[in-house]
């Protein structure tokens, strides 16, 4: 049981490049979400999903796309990277029936730098 | 979900008990209070949750008064490894997302 796995752990992009951050969970959780965390700040929600085929926007969705074709995977796509997207990205998954019981599990993060 | 307010930072010495208070004046009747801990360069992890009165586990205690407008996370006899950011959130059944504030940055001094 690996939990939530994020790849890569580190990435440097040039402005304008695109890339996909991968997130996979093996706990059969219905909920998955992406957050970004800027230095000294809390986590801000980018996109989230309540199940395969269903996604919705969070607080800061601009410049990012997501899809959820399977329960296990929830990739985050940066369409045209900008320096303002330099951040640490966290993926989380949650058990719908246990979210209030701390049912969310976070990955270890992807540190992205856009130059 | 409830808007929460916490101190931005706190310092404490090793071996002391640390209490972090969170204010949540508009908490909904069906919201639980949940605390997450985040170590540097790691994702947050759940540490404790409660609805009313007192809850204790191997990591911390959580005190929630009868009016539920605030809660206090208590860490007994802290060590350097308790240095982290602590987030207080309101959460209930079926929450499809979590809303984080800026949290409280706790620094333990040797």
Structure, explained:
- The complex is a heterodimer of chains A (115) and B (110).
- The N and C termini of chain A lie far apart (36 Å).
- Chain A has no helices and 11 strands.
- In chain A, the strands form 2 sheets. In chain A, strands 2, 4, 5, 6, 9, 10 and 11 form a 7-stranded mixed sheet that branches.
- Helix content of chain A is 0%, strand content 50%.
- The mean pLDDT of chain A is 93.
- Chain B has strands at 9-13, 18-23, 32-38, 45-50, 53-56, 61-64, 70-75, 84-91, 104-109.
- In chain B, the strands form 2 sheets. Chain B has a 5-stranded mixed sheet, with no helix packed on it.
- Chain B is globular and about 40 Å long.
- The model of chain B has no long low-confidence stretch (mean pLDDT 91).
- At the A-B interface, strand 4, strand 5, strand 9 and strand 10 of A face strand 3 and strand 4 of B.
Assembly form of the protein: heterodimer
Mean pLDDT of chain A: 93
Please tell me the overall pLDDT of chain B.
Answer: 91
| Low-confidence segments of chain A | none
Q: Tell me the strand order in the biggest sheet of chain B.
A: 1-9-8-3-4
Radius of gyration of chain B: 13 Å
Shape of chain B: globular
- Please give the largest β-sheet of chain A: 7 strands, mixed
